[in-house]
Amino acid sequence: MASKRKADEQADQPLQEYRRKRRFAQTPEPEGMPGAEPSAPAEPPAEAELLYVIHKHDASRLHYDLRLELDGVLKSWAVPKGPCLDPSQKRLAVHVEDHPIEYGTFEGIIPAGEYGGGTVMLWDEGFWQPLGDPAESYRNGTMRFRLLGRKLKGDWKLVRFRDRSDKGDNWLLIKAKDDQARPLAKIDILVESPDSITTGRTLEQIAREQPPRR
Ligand code: MN
Predict the structure, then answer these.
(1) 9: CA distance to ligand 1 center in Å?
(2) How far is it, in rounded angstroms, from Cα 11 to Cα 136?
(3) Bridge partners of 110?
(4) Ligand 1 center–CA 43 separation, angstroms
(5) Which listed residue, 42, 108, 142, 147, has the most CB atoms within 10 A of its CB?
(6) Which sequence spans correspond to the domains of the chain?
(7) Residue 10 Cα to ligand 1 middle (Å)
């Protein structure tokens, strides 16, 4: 989960850090358009739908990976305690390397010993709508957005820590106060809806019944 934001920003090619960390002969994860590097479209359509997913990732430690499509990749944050519908709960979200868009449909097993080795579940999927200019908000470290997921809906905030003396690129994921907010004492969405949004499988089932590789 260590972040290399500087390296990422200075990378000549998108997804360079993503590819460097993985051996695609060993992992079923998508390589992400190796031949054709996506370049950011100059003028995306105003009503373009931007992909949103959350993976539940049973790696060395169970965590949740929030991914938001921006500029042709999935911007990614590892959220150790997962998202929470309670606006009083601020959840640490560690910014990690960009992932390819195709990762948005990935569910399966990363072999032990490979980067991120463990079971990966597609926990939620849908679209997101930036509130404000998404690229500028991302750069400035204060993103406000609406989730149109199947589990998570309503308005959310991602805010980067001002103090980055600890070297990590740490953000907070916070539910905004709206009609989709719920007190944690009443509902914990992680407990209420623990399984895959696409296949309904538990982590244990995914680990047992890995589908054939594409
Ligand atoms: Mn992960």
Answers:
(1) 20
(2) 19
(3) 118
(4) 31
(5) 147
(6) 2-31+48-207
(7) 22
* Strands (DSSP E) found in the chain: 50-58, 62-70, 73-79, 91-99, 108-110, 118-130, 142-149, 153-160, 170-175
In angstroms, what is the span from residue 122 Cα to ligand 1's centroid? 11
Cα(68)–Cα(211) distance, rounded to whole angstroms?
25
Predicted confidence at residue 71, as pLDDT, reads 94
Band the pLDDT of 6: cuts 50, 70, 90: very low
Residue range 59-75: average pLDDT? 96
Centre of ligand 1 from the C-alpha of residue 61, in Å: 9
What is the pTM assigned to this prediction? 0.85
Q: Which has the higher per-residue pLDDT, 11 or 191?
A: 191
User: DSSP states of 34-61 as a string?
Assistant: SSS-----SS--TTPPEEEEEEEEESSS
pLDDT of residue 162: 75
54 alpha carbon to ligand 1 midpoint, in Å?
10
